[in-house]
């Protein structure tokens, strides 16, 4: 009986040692909280097994209209780094961040202008986030830099591939009215953006009438909505113009099987190409 107890004790001790070892290994990772899935995806790609990222705003939600819950803010309590877009500053005020009482937390706004789904902007974001990770975790600087260089090359290759699809579909000859949140992406894609509109609450009857008139005069053939700020906002405009309409996403993970930037931007382009072919 004593032998069995001793054996059981040894086994338990070994389990505890293993658990402790795993916990210690896990704690070595840089804990990063991100403001959106755009930043989170880059942190995952660049950081690899050196980081432990957790995101706050879900990819299908509009970041500007997302209601923070206490659980969301609490994610910052044990983090070492908080990466957010510069335009999220009003949401994550200094008082809100201070409320988690985490003196080890560094808050770093990522200042990258433009639509992050567009490859040139995505490449810039990758490089800036890699630099922040390297500064925060200098022991793994070369690891982050190597990953960033590889990802930047992949982004350039994807840019060339998708431009080929869009050119073949005749995107440059198509006039578009779109959500202002998609303007930058559509300009990268080669479309002629005639006019833009805001969120559903901003699309008054007068604004809609003006857009329809402008669309008819310009020969608009496509209306593009933004999933996060109103997936059906442009439906009435498209109906009046007899134009094709498509809804794109500005964040990875909003559509099924688009958890990475690469898959998300490819989905957007495929939706555009299909809309052009079907009209």
Structure description:
It holds the Pfam family ZnuA. This is Zinc transport system substrate-binding protein. It is found in: Cell envelope. One of its GO terms (molecular function) is metal ion binding. Its main location: other. The chain has two domains: 27-161, Rossmann fold (3-Layer(aba) Sandwich), CATH 3.40.50; 170-277, Rossmann fold. The radius of gyration is 23 Å and the shape is globular. Helix 9 (235-241) links the parallel strand 7 (222-226) and strand 8. It contains ten helices and eight strands. The longest helix is centred in the middle third of the chain and has 28 residues, at 141-168. The relative contact order is 0.11. Helix 2 (37-47) packs across helix 5, helix 6 (141-168) runs parallel beside helix 10 (261-277) and helix 8 (205-218) crosses helix 9. The strands form two sheets. The protein has a four-stranded parallel sheet, covered by helices on one side. It has a four-stranded parallel sheet with strand order 6-5-7-8, sandwiched between helices. The model is unreliable at 1-26 (pLDDT under 50). With 279 residues, it is of the alpha/beta class. It has helices at residues 2-27, 37-47, 70-74, 94-98, 119-136, 141-168, 183-188, 205-218, 235-241, 261-277, and strands at residues 30-34, 51-55, 81-85, 106-110, 175-179, 192-197, 222-226, 244-248.
SS-based class: alpha/beta
Q: State the CATH superfamily name of the largest domain.
A: Nitrogenase molybdenum iron protein domain
What fold name stands as the CATH topology of the largest domain?
A: Rossmann fold
Number of domains: 2
Please bin the fraction of helical residues: 40-55%
| Inertia-based shape | globular
- Mean of residue pLDDT? 90
Alpha-carbon distance between the two ends: 81 Å
CATH class of the largest domain: Alpha Beta
How many DSSP-defined strands?
8
Which spans of ≥5 residues are poorly predicted at pLDDT below 50? 1-26
Strand adjacency order, main sheet: 2-1-3-4
SSE pattern, N- to C-terminal:
HEHEHEHEHHEHEHEHEH
